[in-house]
Design goal:
Length: about 200
């Protein structure tokens, strides 16, 4: 059973971080929007924002790779959990300042950061933490069991990727500002780190 859990959690976390990486690097505009959102959160000095964005992007890309290789799968879960904790701290600070900043976690939704993103990250941190414990499994699983566990994990990961859309179905959200020229919001919030625009 622990072997199946290990496979499922690696697929879940791997899908989430693959989507996060792809959402940020799929185009120059996506990357610029991510960097702008990081600047608008004002959790790192402005001059360090490009470097921090690069480190975040590389670390997110490293997670699925580490999870893929058995000797480093535990490290992959640890890195994922650390990144999620750092993201959660940044979101909490942003919310405490009552800033309206777009979530560029997966590069596309543009929903304003909110408490639901803390909930999502908390669930993912839990999954990664359980994954650390499950990573000690032997890996001796029949092919059918591998397939079932992998599909279950991947579907779970996709549910987290579509978390904003799913929660929008059940919770009324404030209207998202419309995007203007070059991603600058029409009448949106302009913080010290520059405007951040949902699409």
């Amino acid at each position: 059973m622990l072997d199946h859990l290990d496979i499922a959690l690696r697929c879940l976390i791997g899908v989430v971080f693959l989507a996060a990486t792809f959402g940020k690097v799929r185009s120059r505009a996506s990357w610029r929007e991510f960097v702008a959102s990081l600047a608008a959160m004002r959790v790192v000095p402005t001059r360090l924002v490009p470097a921090v964005a690069g480190v975040v992007g590389l670390a997110e890309a490293a997670v699925p790779v580490l999870l893929l290789v058995p000797p480093t799968r535990r490290l992959g879960h640890v890195l994922a959990a650390l990144l999620l904790v750092a993201f959660s701290i940044g979101i909490a600070v942003t919310l405490s300042r009552r800033q309206r900043v777009a979530c560029r976690c997966f590069g596309a939704t543009g929903a304003p950061l909110g408490r639901r993103h803390l909930l999502r990250n908390g669930l993912l941190i839990t999954a990664a933490s359980v994954g650390v414990a499950a990573a000690g499994a032997t890996g001796d699983v029949p092919p059918a069991g591998v397939a079932v566990a992998a599909v279950a994990g991947a579907v779970g990961g996709l549910l987290f990727v579509w978390f904003d859309d799913i929660t929008d179905l059940f919770v009324a959200q404030p209207a998202r500002p419309t995007a203007g020229r070059r991603g600058v919001p029409d009448g949106g919030h302009r913080g010290a780190g520059g405007p951040v625009t949902p699409r």
